[in-house]
């Protein structure tokens, strides 16, 4: 199914690991260059700006081919313009196949054709079905899954998750008001199913090239689960989808459940991620907690915004300083020690910032536990006797 040479993909993984070791100063630049020269890898780009430039260039190439095809076939097609849009999608898939066979992998040129094929296919299906959302979402779900399995394009894994969620959502809309009412609970169950399926699949996976995509689906389920029960999301969707008018001093159904859900889930993410040492889940928990605070303030502005921000900053500053003091000397488990395999020195910068703002000085130990000699003759460590 994978279009690339698996040996070259394994070599690319080795080169990426070598780059991480170089950034962490385990090996020098010459050793890294020696490893890179010895291994044959696909044509890829780790620089986002370069990849974006090639993506723009690939988009121009794709649109130029489609435009040239339109000019030469304008008279033949006439009013059957729907056919030409399907032809655009075919060109996108064919171009992606050609570029990947030429060993372009995450290069930018292949990104333009892979994304362009999905977009034009969605437009073509929409024109053919008069904008039937569930058909568009279901077909894009299938094509995005096939694209990821074949090209290992991580964005296609994300598109698959989004399209699958949209398919289920539009299917619930077909059930009328009942489906729209139970939609938050269905989304919660759906997110839990994705989480446990991906979580149980990761240890059993035999093809390591699909690890990132399954991990992305696992993290996507965490975000989807939280948003499915967030009070702001549920309330606004109730007004939008059901046309429910919420009068003053009234609330939506199961309001207390959604209030509790909005704050319990982020706290659970934070605690569980610390226990399991899951960094991505930790960041998701922090972002979810911040959105929970915004959710409550969106409806209940207890304090003026400037006072609320000031108090929130003071509280976060105090919590951060306390955690740094507790963890800065730990070398195992949850620790504040910088990770040598990461490129950022944010921990060190945060410690310097806090120390400078509070006027703290680094701890310097001047007394040594080393016992010297008597110092009776000639030197400080000699006793003057043989």
Automatic annotation (TrEMBL):
It comes from Flavobacterium gillisiae. This is Uncharacterized protein. Keywords: Membrane, Transmembrane, Transmembrane helix. The chain crosses the membrane at residues 48-71, 83-100, 151-172, 178-197, 209-234, 254-275, 282-301, 307-324. The keyword Transmembrane helix applies.
